[in-house]
Structures
1.
Amino acid sequence: MCKMSERSFLHFILGLQVLVAFLNLICASESSDEIKIEVLFLPENCTQKARKGDLLHAHYDGFLAKDGTQFYCSRSAKDGQPHWFVHGVGEIIKGLDMGLKDMCPGEKRKITVPPSLAFGEKGKDPVPPNATVIFEVELLHVRRGPRSMEAFKEMDRNNDRTLTKEEVKEHLKMEAEKLNVQKEESYFNDVVTDVFRRHDQDADGTLSVKEYNVYEHDEL
Ligand SMILES: [Ca+2]
Ligand SMILES: [Ca+2]
């Protein structure tokens, strides 16, 4: 009798240990998938917070968390110009994109990104495998992105409530011109192809309001 209860107690303890190990595993994998955001500077007036689909203009530096080695600096890379990119659509690495949510023009953030949301198990030269990275970002401008309802109406030149590839491309070219960004024709073709691949759900070669208006589901 006593032996039996000892045994079941042992089973109970073992079960508990397994459970604890399991919970630790879950917690560990959850916490390793989280980014950390530190606001280094917040301007007094926030004119327009970054939302999914907005066009952001930013400078950023990338560092390895383990020893602080800098692996990227937009101020010294290529022409030293800040980058333009669409927020929340996978144009930049996922953890960085997540870390820019609701950021204000003029704001500075330090965003710590685990490998799973950065360069992964393999890394990407010069970032080694499984590296946690830190980005220091200065957001300069937030513009209404090419994927808002207003932009849809602007793009839909013949007002038929659908967008053709040509309409989208013309709009992108106009935006680039306004922002003084020089791009090759192939760049616009690539962007348009990408936009249609992501949004043309019924694959009819045009985008409906519903297919294009990403603000209706505004999560990352
Ligand atoms: Ca149209
Ligand atoms: Ca369609």
Note: The chain has six helices and eight strands.
2.
Amino acid sequence: MLRCRSIPPLRGMPGRRLAIGTLPGMSAAAGRLGPRVTTTPARRHRITVPHSPEHFQVVDRSASTPVILHAPHGGRAIPPEHLGSFVVSAAELEAEKDAMTDHFTDTLVGSITGASAVINGLSRFAIDVERFPDESEEMNAVGMGVLYTHGSRRQEIRRVAEADRAPLLAYFAQYSRRFTELVDATLAVHGRAVIIDVHSYPEQQLPYELHGGGPRAPLCVGSEPFHAAEPFLLAVAESFAQLQARANTTFAGSYVPLKHYQTDDRVSSVMLEIRRDVYMDEATIAVRPNGFLRLQQSLQRLVDRVR
Ligand SMILES: [Zn+2]
């Protein structure tokens, strides 16, 4: 896990990455996906997994493709019943979402054909589906573990009530379980699964970042050798050739279900951290259509090449 956090280059990093499926699954919260881009057509996918909670979409195309796209941080939704524990104003919370949401990555992922997709509609300020839910989570140090208590400027934003904890952790568990099931279904058909974990990050470093200070390339490609062979990384580089890219700087690793993490090399995974100015104006949270279109084309090229 540990995407959308800055961590040092891969060498010397602690070995684990993904905490998927580490909690018992239960019911999940309800709501809708976050805002969509209006200047770029976004194809809405049919939800094909029965009983999928309203806050995330699972588009299961495992019958026809080994590729799984993931957009964990594009959502802004916080269910109203969980707003009470925030200690900042509604305006400040929205400003935090502006700073920390991987804007339009949900739309980007939803627009690609030939891949399954898992698209999270809940804001990371409700619960971060890519954090470790235990004390091993490094971002706990700045109040940004699985349940954030602090914001982008390390200011307190929430005192998590007990009544919030269980349902939000249940959402985390169900999300993780669904993702794992999709990977298993994909493996059963294709004998391999290719995860592309799509994020974006701000042009300017934010105070919460633990390992900032390094170069912030237009594209940061996170991976680990066990889950990313050279041909896969080459396909990424060639598909995004128009963007200067750096490996595992300033974000590292990629999303793999814990069930498969470091034990099943049939599961490949790469994280794409796209610097936001490439495709949007961070000041106005407006998409830049040309940049967004080029990203769509590159991601589609990558999917077509590795499927
Ligand atoms: Zn992210």
Note: The first strand starts at residue 56 and ends at 59.
3.
Amino acid sequence: MSERTIALVTGANKGIGYEIAAGLGALGWSVGVGARDPERLEEAVGKLRAAGVDAFGVPLDVTDDASVAAAARLLQERGGRLDVLVNNAGITGGRPQEPTVVDPGLVRDVVETNVIGVIRVTNALLPLLRRSASPRIVNMSSSVGSMARQEAAGPGEGQGPISAAYAPSKSFLNAVTLQYAKELHGSNILINAGCPGFCATDLNGFRGYRTAEQGAQVAIRLATLPDDGPSGKFFDDDGEVPW
Ligand SMILES: NC(=O)c1ccc[n+]([C@@H]2O[C@H](COP(=O)([O-])OP(=O)(O)OC[C@H]3O[C@@H](n4cnc5c(N)ncnc54)[C@H](OP(=O)(O)O)[C@@H]3O)[C@@H](O)[C@H]2O)c1
């Protein structure tokens, strides 16, 4: 078994996921680069290796059972365990998303990736995580999923665009994160949700005011929590985010 900490980052071919992979690699970790497109995967692994990261490719579409099972087999064969899983892959689903006009199919697609994809990947990899001395799971959420902040934004206003798909998918993901933490309480697995802030990536047409590298920092912090660290919480760079 590898002495190095082994991590997997989903959706790591670009944006915040790529920067999380780069940041974890800079710690000397072995980093599985999860990506659904073979060419984008190869390119990202090549770039990370050129930067000195011990990166390896993990073909992974989080919406596809067979792809996730194959990724679990690859990790089993490669390291026999997984120390850190960062569930980063996510989509907004496009527009319109206002509740009164949204296409229910769009909502279903967003939930399939942003929530069910996380459950699918996490459960497939739990047997490998359970073999780690200090397993950590980080779910990349968003403060737009904070019900408290949505309420505080006031009537007629959203925390981010008013949406029946993307923002509620992150509320759902937050709720699921908390439920995992409850079930895993008493084990050595810590699971938390992180918000990267509004970062300039493909996800928002590069309108964010933070860099993807800045957005990656919260995930790196939650991936490196000490054994007595929190679980079942939601954080951004400024501290805990209300549910
Ligand atoms: N950017 C922000 O301001 C912001 C704010 C709050 C939260 N977040 C969250 O941070 C995470 C990363 O976002 P980002 O801004 O870096 O977005 P991004 O640049 O669009 O990257 C998203 C990544 O997810 C991958 N992905 C999408 N669907 C997938 C699937 N079915 N299977 C595997 N990979 C899939 C994409 O792969 P492809 O290249 O193949 O499409 C890409 O690698 C997301 O969960 C997002 O919701 C972002």
Note: The chain has seven helices and eight strands.
4.
Amino acid sequence: MVILKTFKSSLCIVSVFLFVFFIVLNYNLLSESYSNSFKNMLQLGASERNVDDLFPIKFYHIAFVDYRTNTPRLRIFSINGCLRNSKYLNVDIYQKGMRTPTRMKVYGRPLEGHCPSAYWLATPCFFSAHTFETHLTVTGGLTKVVIELGLRQVELSVQEIHNPVQIGITMCVQPVYYYTQWQNIVLYIEAWRAQGATRFIVFYHSSTKDTRKVLDYYQKLGIIELRPWPSFGNLPNDIAEKYPNIDNSAYIFAYFLALNICILEVKTTIGAVIDFDEIAVPLNGTTLDYATKEMTGTNVGALIFENNYVSMNPSIYTSDFSGVSSPTFYSKIGPQKVRHSKFKRFISYLLFQFIFNASVIELCQVHHVESFLDKSKITKKSDGALLHLRFNVNSLKANTISKPFRFFPNNASHHIENMHETVWNKVKSIFGKTPPPVSLKSLNTFNICEKRSENQGMCHGATCKSDMDAVHEWVYDRTEGVFLSGEY
Ligand SMILES: *[C@@H]1O[C@H](CO)[C@@H](O)[C@H](O)[C@H]1NC(C)=O
Ligand SMILES: *[C@@H]1O[C@H](CO)[C@@H](O)[C@H](O)[C@H]1NC(C)=O
Ligand SMILES: *[C@@H]1O[C@H](CO)[C@@H](O)[C@H](O)[C@H]1NC(C)=O
């Protein structure tokens, strides 16, 4: 996890706790002062206005029509400044066989529940991920959606979301953002496929050339689907100078946006939002069988897997995967005595990842489900484990312990052979030479930069591009037309 990677020293952990305490405090104050009636007053108040061409906003190029509920819902995703008093979009809905569009008012909300974010590292960020949604009364299929922003218009294409029927797990991988060790990807694909994953959706912002080559290799095999996650680009000229640059003032490239878009694209019964360095495994059998058994015919909509740091001997970064058959586990890292219960819950969120029933998921946060479409569904703690690779786990000074969990449900040696085949034999087609070593220099550069932006109270990690460009030649996604602000 991006967030966990910053937990480098005990000093850092102490400051993390202080900050979390502060958020909890803030959160309480906010929820108390904004009583429901006050909120309603804001919503019904005379200050209601449409989002116009002077408002800083960019839209994801696809609008989704979600047919998983009885009344279909239109969902539009954006990155923008806080909406403050109730702002709505004027949206023209174009339907098959209808000449004139239907105009609708569509209201928005921040994906994190708060704007600016209540998460301390993201609080200084000016731009936050939002969703605008409305129930659709129209019957026919939609052909396009046009947002009228005063003098500008933004046209979005439309994608329909239906209840998934294919049995399997779809993995959503948050934007690959600078530092991803390519060996992690090889293990991730091999282990998750053995656990029942059938589809991999990978949002891509930037990586080393070697990591990109490995992603391209799996994409050519049809195993992963890359989704472009480029720079957000500038706001239109007439308002650009009034606001911060979006890329420099959106939290770690607004991955709340990518992950909530991805969970809609899951076409399998089960989905997961899990990073390249994490594999969720059950005690016995495959993750797919275990999760299907736990969720089918029950009120369980998601299962959380508790974090376990593991390392391998030899390290997989030597491109020798033989250590994967018996990973080393570490005792829990970090302060054990947390008294404040909210505080404890917040911290514990950081130590879990989850998989979910794709028919019922509505919104998710980075480490937990925010809401289900079916309000009777709950999240349950699994008796499985999240195997979380940490290249520097030894420096965390934790004791090693033994646990019954393994990366593969069976036949580990067969999977290890597969991985060796991929990196040593197929590698000529990937790298054109022997597997290249992984340099940790650029990761340190990112950590130092993140620390600096935190100390300066700046939007976390967002302004690291020049630091990163100074130490390595990165492959950036440069797809155009992903984030739109409209034409006059
Ligand atoms: C694991 O699952 C298999 C098949 O479902 C079963 O036969 C076996 O007894 C289980 N092993 C344990 C340790 O639970
Ligand atoms: C997902 O939830 C739906 C609705 O409750 C249910 O019919 C289905 O069996 C669940 N699927 C899985 C894999 O849990
Ligand atoms: C394990 O994998 C090998 C191939 O490496 C295969 O021949 C063997 O049948 C597999 N065993 C089981 C129990 O699946």
Note: The two ends are 41 Å apart (CA to CA).
